[in-house]
Design a protein that fits this description.
Layout (H helix, E strand, L loop, with lengths): L21 H13 L4 H11 L2 E2 L5 H23 L7 H20 L3 E2 L1
Antiparallel strand pairs: 1-2
Helix pairs in contact: 1-2, 3-4
Protein backbone atom coordinates (compact mmCIF):
# COMPACT_ATOMS: atom_id res chain seq x y z
CA UNK A 1 0.00 0.00 0.00
CA UNK A 2 1.46 3.30 -1.08
CA UNK A 3 1.11 6.28 1.25
CA UNK A 4 0.88 9.57 -0.59
CA UNK A 5 1.88 12.74 1.09
CA UNK A 6 -1.02 15.15 1.10
CA UNK A 7 0.10 18.54 0.00
CA UNK A 8 -2.06 21.34 -1.14
CA UNK A 9 -0.77 22.97 -4.26
CA UNK A 10 -2.41 26.29 -4.44
CA UNK A 11 -1.50 29.50 -6.08
CA UNK A 12 -2.84 32.48 -4.25
CA UNK A 13 -3.69 34.68 -7.16
CA UNK A 14 -7.01 36.09 -5.94
CA UNK A 15 -7.44 39.19 -3.83
CA UNK A 16 -10.06 39.96 -1.20
CA UNK A 17 -10.26 43.57 -0.06
CA UNK A 18 -11.53 44.31 3.45
CA UNK A 19 -12.37 47.63 5.01
CA UNK A 20 -11.29 47.72 8.65
CA UNK A 21 -10.83 50.27 11.36
CA UNK A 22 -7.27 50.84 12.49
CA UNK A 23 -7.91 48.94 15.73
CA UNK A 24 -9.49 45.98 13.88
CA UNK A 25 -6.48 45.75 11.58
CA UNK A 26 -4.04 45.95 14.50
CA UNK A 27 -5.98 43.26 16.37
CA UNK A 28 -5.89 40.86 13.40
CA UNK A 29 -2.19 41.45 12.82
CA UNK A 30 -1.41 41.00 16.53
CA UNK A 31 -3.42 37.78 16.77
CA UNK A 32 -1.85 36.36 13.62
CA UNK A 33 1.58 37.13 15.04
CA UNK A 34 0.67 35.50 18.34
CA UNK A 35 -0.44 32.42 16.40
CA UNK A 36 2.85 32.54 14.45
CA UNK A 37 0.93 32.69 11.18
CA UNK A 38 0.85 35.08 8.29
CA UNK A 39 -2.15 37.39 8.33
CA UNK A 40 -3.54 35.63 5.25
CA UNK A 41 -3.16 32.15 6.81
CA UNK A 42 -4.69 33.42 10.06
CA UNK A 43 -7.77 34.88 8.34
CA UNK A 44 -8.24 31.72 6.25
CA UNK A 45 -7.93 29.53 9.36
CA UNK A 46 -10.47 31.68 11.20
CA UNK A 47 -12.89 31.46 8.27
CA UNK A 48 -12.39 27.69 7.99
CA UNK A 49 -13.10 27.18 11.71
CA UNK A 50 -15.99 29.62 12.01
CA UNK A 51 -19.32 28.22 13.19
CA UNK A 52 -22.16 30.07 11.55
CA UNK A 53 -25.59 30.05 13.17
CA UNK A 54 -28.47 30.54 10.79
CA UNK A 55 -32.21 31.05 11.31
CA UNK A 56 -32.73 27.45 10.11
CA UNK A 57 -31.11 26.32 13.38
CA UNK A 58 -34.07 27.83 15.21
CA UNK A 59 -36.82 25.92 13.37
CA UNK A 60 -37.23 23.28 16.11
CA UNK A 61 -37.45 26.02 18.75
CA UNK A 62 -40.04 27.98 16.78
CA UNK A 63 -42.04 24.81 16.19
CA UNK A 64 -42.12 24.05 19.92
CA UNK A 65 -43.03 27.66 20.73
CA UNK A 66 -45.98 27.41 18.34
CA UNK A 67 -47.16 24.24 20.09
CA UNK A 68 -46.82 25.90 23.47
CA UNK A 69 -48.73 28.91 22.12
CA UNK A 70 -51.54 26.65 20.94
CA UNK A 71 -51.71 25.07 24.40
CA UNK A 72 -51.78 28.49 26.03
CA UNK A 73 -54.62 29.55 23.71
CA UNK A 74 -56.62 26.44 24.64
CA UNK A 75 -56.07 27.13 28.33
CA UNK A 76 -57.02 30.80 27.82
CA UNK A 77 -60.31 29.73 26.22
CA UNK A 78 -61.08 27.58 29.28
CA UNK A 79 -60.13 30.39 31.67
CA UNK A 80 -62.16 32.99 29.76
CA UNK A 81 -65.21 30.71 29.63
CA UNK A 82 -65.06 30.22 33.39
CA UNK A 83 -64.46 26.47 33.14
CA UNK A 84 -61.10 26.88 34.86
CA UNK A 85 -59.88 29.53 37.30
CA UNK A 86 -56.34 30.79 37.02
CA UNK A 87 -54.36 33.36 38.93
CA UNK A 88 -51.70 35.27 36.95
CA UNK A 89 -52.42 33.51 33.67
CA UNK A 90 -51.66 36.81 31.94
CA UNK A 91 -48.09 36.42 33.18
CA UNK A 92 -47.79 33.08 31.36
CA UNK A 93 -48.98 34.66 28.11
CA UNK A 94 -46.65 37.63 28.59
CA UNK A 95 -43.61 35.40 29.17
CA UNK A 96 -44.44 33.26 26.12
CA UNK A 97 -44.67 36.41 24.00
CA UNK A 98 -41.29 37.62 25.31
CA UNK A 99 -39.66 34.29 24.45
CA UNK A 100 -41.22 34.33 20.99
CA UNK A 101 -40.02 37.92 20.42
CA UNK A 102 -36.44 37.01 21.39
CA UNK A 103 -36.42 33.99 19.09
CA UNK A 104 -37.83 36.18 16.32
CA UNK A 105 -35.03 38.73 16.89
CA UNK A 106 -32.41 35.98 16.70
CA UNK A 107 -33.98 34.48 13.58
CA UNK A 108 -34.06 37.82 11.80
CA UNK A 109 -30.59 38.93 12.83
CA UNK A 110 -27.78 38.51 10.32
CA UNK A 111 -25.98 35.19 10.58
CA UNK A 112 -23.73 35.29 13.58
CA UNK A 113 -20.27 33.83 13.75
CA UNK A 114 -19.10 32.13 16.94
Amino acid sequence: MEVKEITENRRRDKTLTLRLTDSEKKKIIAKSGKAKMSTTDFIIACADNAVIKTPEDLRPVVSQLKRIGNNINQIAIKVNSGAVYSVNFDEVIEMHNKIYEKVYEIANADSTIH
